[in-house]
Structure formats: structure tokens, C-alpha cells
Design a protein that fits this description.
single chain, 300 residues, alpha/beta, 8-stranded mixed sheet, two-stranded antiparallel ribbon, 12 helices, 12 strands
């Protein structure tokens, strides 16, 4: 992992990302890496509201270049400079955040808190008068149990792995159930993914879900909360799924990824799901998609 040569690639908003050879994907959308952090993660988790609390707990799953954490800290401290942040980041490869610092990618942001991100990247721990941060290095399936054992209850969780086909191990029912245990009863979880398998996993973990606006692409993201969330009016922070999105959850695409012991390799997890899909009586996703296209054409 650490042998990858991370070369900055420009995205449409002027910020930069990397391409992962291991997962064969870029870390961010080419529409804009920086804007993705704000609009897919910070905004859906309502951090500009939660920041009014004296203490805020943040769990950043797949920390990567550090953009989501950077956007969160910027937003929180602009709203409330005195908010004390407790941060835990989970990251498989420490060379990724280190490369972001070495390539001075935050210079492009005109960012105030690069020293914090640098210390987090190279020392995996940072302590200031308004932040306690840790970066747990390793497989997030193992790290998440440590987070739970600490009794960490996050006000906001960023779920930002590579796509489900490339990194199915962090989208399984079993993993997301562990993530849900670390979400405060009044907290919010955000992810860029709208995959039916991901949404079903969130629902199976006991969370309610909503759809977040597309950012640069047609696909929306997803925000999730415990049903008993009382900090906000639940329906205002969980924009309802469209009729088509609800129908999508009734197709074979909604069969979730499974990893019973949280230790299977990606091909095993993918094959297990494919076998379950082949044996399923649910509607084929291709048929649902054709119907949606036909309905959209007939509406004009």
C-alpha cells in the first residue's frame, strides 16, 4: 500500500485528488474534491448547527487525504471558535494523508488548520486547546470495534470508502451495524453512495435514511439517523426518497453485501452477493431501470 505513487490530479473545482492503484479509483469525484467534502458530508450532517454545542464528536471513516475532516473543522470553528472537537479517523493507508501534506494540497484551499492535519497524518494523534484527534491505521473492520469499545458516540459520521464494487468490505450489513453502534442517538451519518445495497444495509442496521442532493453528478447521496433522533425535526434532515429510489430498494440491486465474520476478502464478499442475487425472486434491476426510463420519456 505505502509503495503507491500518489500524484495530484486536478478536479473541476480547482482542488486536487489522488488515484488509488489498489482500488482502481480516484479518491474523489472529478467534479470537485473539495466541494464534495462540504456538500456530501459536512452539509448533510448539519455541522453548522451541531457546532453550537460545547463539544462535538466526529468519526471520519476512510480519512484518505483528510478533506472531509478539513471541511468539518473549517465549518465548525467558523460557526463556534470555542467548540471542542473529538475526532477519530479510520484509514487503511497512512501514506495517503501524508502524501496530501507533502504535495501541499491544502495550500489550494487557503486552509488555516494544515498544521493539525499534518500532525494527524504523520503522528496519528493531535491535541490542542480545542481538538483531540486520533487516526487509527488499519482495516476499518477491526478499527471500528476499538471505536465502539471506547464508548465513542459520534454526532457526525462520514462514511467514505471507495465504491461498493471496489471496496465491498466496508459496505456490508455487518460493518454498517458496527458503525451504527458508534452513532449518537441524535447524530447523523452521511455517505456519497446511493447504492440500493448500501441503503438496505443502513436500514438493516436500524437507521432511517434520506436522500441528499447530487453534487456534480446525477446520483444523490444518503443521510441516515436513528429513528429516535430528537435533535432535529427528523423529516427535515432526512429528505424523503423519490418513488424511483424506493422502487430501487425492491430490486436485486438492493441485496446487500455480507461479511459474517468481518474478515472476508473483497472477491469472496462480491461472489456471495452475486450468488444471492441469482437465487433471488426480486425484480431484476435492469427491468426496473428500463421502466424508469420509459416513465421519464412518457412524462414529456
Amino acid at each position: 500500500m505505502s509503495n503507491e505513487n500518489f500524484i495530484p490530479q486536478a478536479t473541476a473545482d480547482g482542488s486536487f485528488t489522488f488515484f488509488s492503484q489498489q482500488f482502481n479509483e480516484a479518491f474523489h469525484s472529478h467534479f470537485g474534491a473539495k466541494q464534495e467534502s462540504f456538500f456530501k458530508f459536512v452539509s448533510p450532517t448539519q455541522l453548522e448547527i451541531v457546532a453550537h454545542q460545547p463539544t462535538l464528536r466526529l468519526l471520519d471513516i476512510c480519512y484518505g487525504l483528510g478533506y472531509n475532516t478539513a471541511a468539518a473543522l473549517e465549518t465548525i470553528w467558523q460557526v463556534n471558535p470555542h467548540c471542542y472537537v473529538e475526532l477519530i479517523g479510520l484509514e487503511l493507508n497512512p501514506s495517503v494523508p501524508q502524501a496530501a501534506i507533502n504535495h501541499h494540497l491544502f495550500d489550494n484551499w487557503n486552509y488555516e488548520h494544515t498544521d493539525i492535519l499534518s500532525q494527524l497524518a504523520f503522528e496519528q494523534e493531535v491535541q490542542t486547546e480545542r481538538l483531540q484527534g486520533k487516526l487509527l491505521i488499519g482495516d476499518a473492520r477491526h478499527s471500528i470495534s476499538k471505536v465502539h469499545q471506547l464508548g465513542f458516540q459520534a454526532d457526525a459520521i462520514f462514511l467514505d470508502p471507495f465504491s461498493p464494487p471496489q471496496c465491498p468490505q466496508l459496505w456490508t450489513v455487518e460493518f454498517i451495524k458496527q458503525v451504527a453502534l458508534c452513532l449518537h442517538v441524535d447524530g447523523l451519518l452521511a455517505t456519497y453512495s446511493c447504492a440500493a445495497a448500501v441503503r438496505i444495509a443502513l436500514l438493516t442496521a436500524g437507521l432511517q435514511i434520506g436522500s441528499t442532493p447530487p453534487v456534480g453528478r446525477r446520483s444523490p447521496g444518503t443521510v441516515a439517523a436513528h429513528p429516535q433522533n430528537s435533535r432535529f425535526h427528523i423529516h427535515s434532515v432526512l429528505p424523503p426518497l423519490s418513488h424511483a429510489e424506493k422502487e430501487h430498494l425492491l430490486t436485486r440491486a438492493a441485496i446487500p453485501y455480507r461479511d459474517p465474520l468481518l474478515n472476508d476478502k473483497a472477491p469472496v464478499i462480491v461472489q456471495r452477493r452475486q450468488q444471492e442475487q441469482q437465487a433471488s425472486s426480486l425484480e431484476p434491476t435492469s427491468r426496473w431501470r428500463k421502466r424508469c426510463i420509459a416513465q421519464s420519456v412518457s412524462s414529456f
